[in-house]
């Protein structure tokens, strides 16, 4: 089928939207929706989130009727998830034709240690709460709040990584979180055949997380590989990668539950 010209009249919930890839997704989605759409942007950083809100409201899409709601919340906490769901339900109208949830919020975790060093269960639990539990529980909450109905398309995007498929020494927490999320969303795709589920790997991005990886990774080979990507100008911009994600979403020909890498688009 030919790609759609837009995503429709959308309610889009995007986590980790204040910076990096999440910010790029919010901007690209705003340019790919019909008037009357609503973006619910979620992040812990209030000033950056509100600056993005102001930018989008003043954009062409904003002037055409796009609404932008911001939720300053930690999705790793129960109260944060509840606030996102409450605001999303309040933003929904009967004119919405497409629900889009982008699970982007994530953290790198402590890459300065190896697996044998993680004896602190509270540290591991905290990491998994933000990087796995929050995405699963937010997705479940959104699907319950907006159940299947004939006039409503529903799409869930899991922002994943090569680390979901390949082990990176000293990146044990990150690899574990990404692998767990990939499998959870594959199960979701099997359980909900009407739902469009995509795990999108945006590739090596020129972000603050990459800078952290270059400075703190314990494994010397992994650390050097990231330093080389940066030095050789091989990191992708968030905008470059996000344009590939939008292409996949607009074409809407992917197998639900698939893991799609930026370099395969």
Shape: globular
Overall helicity: 40-55%
Radius of gyration in whole Å, from Cα?
Answer: 18 Å
Low-confidence stretches: none
| N→C terminal distance | 16 Å
Q: State the order of secondary-structure elements, H for helix, E for strand.
A: EHEHHEHEHEHEHHHE
Largest sheet: 7 strands, parallel
DSSP strand count: 7
Strand order of the largest sheet: 3-2-1-4-5-6-7
Mean pLDDT: 96
Helix-strand category: alpha/beta
Tally of contiguous helical segments: 9
Strand content: 15-25%
What can you tell me about this protein's structure?
The protein has 9 helices and 7 strands. It has 265 residues and is α/β, with parallel strands linked by helices. Helix 7 crosses helix 8. The radius of gyration is 18 Å and the shape is globular. The protein starts with 9 loop residues before the first strand and ends with a strand.
């Amino acid at each position: 089928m030919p790609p759609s010209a837009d995503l429709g009249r959308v309610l889009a919930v995007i986590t980790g939207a204040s910076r990096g890839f999440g910010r790029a997704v919010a901007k690209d989605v705003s340019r790919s929706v019909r008037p009357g759409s609503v973006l619910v942007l979620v992040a812990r950083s209030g000033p950056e989130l509100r600056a993005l809100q102001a930018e989008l409201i003043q954009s062409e899409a904003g002037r055409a009727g796009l609404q932008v709601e911001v939720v300053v919340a930690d999705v790793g906490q129960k109260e944060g998830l509840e606030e996102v769901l409450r605001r999303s339900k309040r933003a929904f109208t009967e004119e919405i034709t497409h629900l889009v949830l982008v699970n982007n919020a994530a953290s790198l975790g402590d890459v300065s240690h190896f697996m044998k060093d993680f004896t602190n269960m509270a540290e591991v639990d905290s990491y998994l709460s933000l990087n796995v539990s929050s995405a699963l529980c937010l997705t479940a909450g959104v699907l319950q709040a907006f159940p299947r109905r004939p006039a409503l398309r529903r799409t869930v995007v899991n922002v994943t990584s090569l680390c979901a498929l390949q082990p990176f020494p000293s990146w044990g927490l990150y690899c574990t979180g990404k692998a767990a999320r990939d499998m959870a969303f594959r199960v979701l795709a099997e359980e909900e055949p009407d739902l469009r589920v995509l795990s999108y790997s945006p590739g090596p991005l020129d972000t603050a997380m990459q800078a952290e990886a270059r400075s703190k990774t314990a494994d010397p080979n992994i650390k050097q590989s990231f330093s080389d990507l940066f030095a050789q100008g091989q990191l992708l911009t968030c905008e470059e990668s996000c344009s590939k994600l939008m292409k996949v979403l607009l074409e809407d020909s992917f197998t639900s539950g698939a893991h799609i890498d930026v370099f395969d688009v």
